[in-house]
Amino acid sequence: MILIVTTASGGTLPKSARELVSVARELASGAQVAAAVVGPEAAAAEMANYVPQVYALTSDALQPLRAEALTAAVQQVAAAAGANTVIMAANRLGQSVAPRVAVRLNAALLEDVIQVSGTAGAYEAVRYSYLSRVTETVRTVGGDATVITVKPNVFAVAEPQPGGAVTAHAPQLDASASRVSVGQRSAASGGRVKLEEASVVVAGGRGLGSADAFTALVEPMADVLNAGVASTRAVVDAGWRPYAEQVGQTGKSVAPELYIALGISGAVQHLSGMNRSKVIVAVNKDADAPIFRIVDYGIVGDVAQVAPALTAALKEAKGS
Amino acid sequence: MKLITVLKQVPDAEARIRAGAAGVDLDGVTFVIDGMDEYGVEEAIRLREAGNEVEIVALALGPARYEEAIRTALALGADRAVHIETDVDLDPISQARVLAQVVQQEGADMVLVGGKQADWDSAALGPALAEVLGWPHSDWTTKLELAAGSVTVEHDTDDGHESLSMPLPAVITTQQGLNEPRYPTLPNIMKAKRKELAKRALDEFGAGAGLTQITSQQIQTRERLGKVIEGDAASAAAELVRLLQSEAKVL
Ligand SMILES: Cc1cc2nc3c(=O)[nH]c(=O)nc-3n(C[C@H](O)[C@H](O)[C@H](O)COP(=O)(O)OP(=O)(O)OC[C@H]3O[C@@H](n4cnc5c(N)ncnc54)[C@H](O)[C@@H]3O)c2cc1C
Ligand SMILES: Nc1ncnc2c1ncn2[C@@H]1O[C@H](COP(=O)(O)O)[C@@H](O)[C@H]1O
To answer: pTM of the full predicted structure?
Structure first.
């Protein structure tokens, strides 16, 4: 049995959940697929349109979501479902919970994979290493089970296969599940498409010059393209943009269809978060900037002039 | 209180990585303490400088060359170090089971470890260590304050950030933003040579052969068009949009 674990804030499944379904179906080959959905019942019901067996974890004790509580819940659902494989999205939560689950299940961990094949006990996965400069193949050689985290935005989203059954599951949680208390939470930036789910990303770097210029040049382009907005560390350190927008080694990892880099030099630590984008465009006034080594299309020029011209041209193209 | 900072030694980010038939070839590459782990060493030193009575123990599991990174941590301010010296490439889950034994033997109150390793691109060691120890954990930590028997942190989440409070002992994974690591001074580098660096063997910990194995490694390459579009802003922009539509087909 392959168990998908996903969380849903609000009533809807994240895009990554349907990517996990694709992975699970590929691996299943006769084996069963089940899903644990943490969040409102509506999300579990939606998941039943994709997998035959859904465990709905609606308990208030799981909110706000904490790694230790989720770990305990996943262990219990895995036992109930008889799962030997657990798959989760390689987002921040997944990357903190999956290692815990692996320890509990005495499982091998395949982390942040972009391909996976084989059967339980002998999986083989492809992932990146060395700040995304290396592609490596890893196989499981031990453990009683396997936990897999899947890089977001790599696998296709699955098509529905309606008719799944939903079972409520109330996790048994001990005191350790609530010993971390959650204080102040920042609100997620509203309105715009989520960076990790965006198929187009417009990213800005220090070359934009100021926080105001960032807003004035990046946001209108992102609006036209219905794109996510991303930043470099230099921009986040300068306080121009929130950390949630940072792409790179210490930020998010994205691989959209189109990544437009404005005023970004192309440091290795930034590239490691975006160098798998399908098409990369850069605007930089320095023809020797390292970013130009990995672009499909580059414009050497001042962002203050090129960005508004590009936004206007995109608007025209989208309008027609 | 006793703080353990776990560290790795990794290729310098700017180093040119090659791959041969046997996988990544690190011959001639410059190695450094993993930048992510450095934040933990720095934070431990700052906790001492803030007036807390702390002993700082650097802990590393890796080949002989790691000694240089360990000496750097000692030069920065760690009091002593434990090096489990091995050429075995253990996966992070198996490593956590080994490192946890040292943490327990030391009776540490807090473990600081980098949030993502620059060689494996793995974020698993911190949470796995916390789980083996049965401790709470803060991932992607950007701020840390000690109180009596507990620690309050700020950390980044998928949607933004939040503050957390947790009892000690705890595992803290560190990252950019937590602090600005200092550089070791020459006198401290000299002093570090005399600090205790205990060597342990992997055999002492019943580690087994590991749970995963890397079977091949290649330098990631992706064919890029590398087209530079000429002209003034308006005509370059128009040409780019045309290419994105008709050639790249992403609009
Ligand atoms: C441990 C560690 C982790 C890191 N993690 C990350 C990470 O996750 N993400 C990340 O992004 N970085 C990360 N970094 C930092 C990284 O090394 C770079 O410093 C950073 O990416 C640079 O950001 P930038 O490109 O915006 O700025 P710069 O490097 O300053 O580049 C600005 C660019 O803008 C161009 N420019 C200037 N003016 C104009 C103009 N008018 N028009 C057009 N172009 C112009 C310049 O030619 C230049 O190329 C990390 C570093 C370390 C040590
Ligand atoms: N065509 C490419 N596509 C994506 N990333 C690349 C490409 N070429 C080089 N890189 C990355 O860019 C960085 C610098 O590469 P190089 O200039 O070859 O040392 C490394 O992180 C490479 O992995």
So the answer is: 0.89
